[in-house]
Prior knowledge:
Elements: H1 15-19, H2 38-48, H3 58-71, H4 86-90, H5 104-112, H6 129-139, H7 143-146, H8 151-160, H9 173-184, H10 201-214, E1 223-224, H11 230-239, H12 247-258, E2 264-269, E3 281-286, H13 289-301, E4 306-319, E5 332-336, E6 342-355, H14 358-371, E7 391-394, E8 401-411, E9 414-420, H15 422-433, E10 442-449, H16 450-456
Antiparallel strand pairs: 1-4, 2-4, 2-9, 3-6, 3-7, 4-6, 5-6, 7-10, 8-9, 8-10
Helix pairs in contact: 2-10, 3-5, 3-6, 6-9, 6-10, 8-9, 11-13
Amino acid sequence: MASGGTGFAAYAQSSESEAEVAVSASAQTTSAIGAANTQGASYVQDRFGLKLTAAPTKGEMVVAVARLLAASQTSAPAPSPAPAGGAAAAANPFSDLAADSALYEAAVALHGQGILSSGALQGDARLTQGTAVYIVLKAAGLKELAYTYPDAKTQTALGKLGIADRSVYGLTRQASQELAAAVDTGLLPQAAFDPSAPASAVFAEELLERLLSVRGEAKRYIGSTSEDDIFAKVHAAFDTHNLIQVPELQAIVDEALKQGLVTGYNLKDDRYTAHFDEARALTYGHSDLTHAIQLIGLLRSENLQAKVQLEPKTSAFLYLKEWGEPQQSDDYKVVQIENGNYIAYAKEYDLAFEFDTVEQKDKFHSVIEAYAKKDSDDEPGLIAGSWWQPLYYSLRKLPAYIEIANNRIDQGHYYAQSFSLPEQSAEIAEGLKKLKAGLQVNSYRFWVDEPFYNYLLGESK
């Protein structure tokens, strides 16, 4: 428990320019896609700060997709945009986009990844449902799949969208293939769809969330508390992970431990981050697998329904030599340091929960206080492995929680973090930066249960 306004370039000279037709008055209604899924739109907005206008332009979609791909850990690095002026400016792939446009960087990045093609970008054009799908299909890395579709298979998929004759919409064979692949992969739901109709913000944001899913950047979870096999999934997730070892990163935070800059830290792998909706999410840290199993059983008994993700974690802290010879195992290692003490590395976990409602998230605190928080030795009525100072926290402010700070260092998909009191955060961050030239420390505030806050104050109970 260590503290630790433009548009989309000519689409291969076919998909966009030929697929798009004049928007009819009858096409002004919002598509059913996403109409009942405002939660999806909120998720994209909350996680990435993306909020499209009610009537988005194609340029807004280009910027949104470029931003998601830049944040995606599985995407290839976006090429640097060409600077304005000189020979580089002559390489501008868009005939109607100036190099000093606010949209230039995003458009060039997508062009460099084969998502947009050279030609007129049509900067302020209204985003249509078809164009939104074409952009997202390529961004999702599905274009090769789409182009395997023979005509009969394409028509079968289009029939699920209510499109019996592609010529009615002016769809080329390529555009039809892309729509078909989008349907079959679930990128585009089988709902009311008109490729020439204007896309609403809800429609576009639904596609963006599905893009995240295809690219492996959506919410990650092993199951939900209500599933009968959730306990087996928790066992499998915990049992198949080992101590996290990142030598170069550990060298920095181990030195911070030796100097007393921090009292402990965690190592985590960002590939397991849940990416849950912050308004309904909590993270609970522990080391005992039996405790995790009983905790989920406790939530079920209290009718608290939540998605569950087990995020592997290694906690590091000082083990003093006067405590005796440490006993090592596959899940607990020590390294002796210069003064005879040790740095201990212990296998732990964080359980990330996304509750069905905010009210259920709020109730979690009282459930832990009653059944998973130790207040005396041999206290009855608690689940196994209950701590004096349990650790659970929210990235959103909650009334019964207290603000603390996290100081995080990233290296690839791994990161080290150390929790602290808010007033100590700046000093810790500056101290960490002195340990390695150019080191970036991400410090931010979040909210934790009061017993763990007391732990940071130095209290043992």
